[in-house]
Structures are given as structure tokens and as C-alpha cells.
Predict the 3D structure of the following.
Amino acid sequence: MEVSIRLQKIGKITKLSNCFRIVAMSKNQSRDSKNLEILGHYNPTKKPAEVLIRHEKIEKWLKKGARMTNTVKALVNKNKKAVAA
């Protein structure tokens, strides 16, 4: 089973209330399917955007062979720089 780390949409359907979970899920499942593990969340509607990432869990999945989507990779890298500063 190929695993990807990607965003899962939660919340209401309106554009003003989009929130996302960062999850590990099977690569062949749709965005709103059951996930394997919740790794964080991302809320772009708040100013500044609210990002909570559990880096240790992401590292665990990457060691197992999971791949991050480009969007999640950008969020993780941005969050690592903000935490380090």
C-alpha cells in the first residue's frame, strides 16, 4: 500500500470556512476518505494562517516510505523555519 501525506478538507463547504487536516492516507483513496493518522491541521482563513504540524509523526511516516504532496511539503518547510526562529 502506497501512503501519501496530504491535506484532507474538513468543515463547511463555503470558501470562507475551509479548514484542512494534514493526514497520512492510502494514495488511491479520495481526499475525503478515511485516513490512517492525523498529523496536523491547517486553517488558511485565519490571519496569519494557523498551522499545527506534528513533525515526529511525519518523520515516522516518511521513514515507512510515505510521500508528501507539494502543498504539504511547503507547509512543513515553512513551519520548520518558523519554529527554528
Q: What stands out?
A: The radius of gyration is 13 Å. The chain has a mean pLDDT of 85.
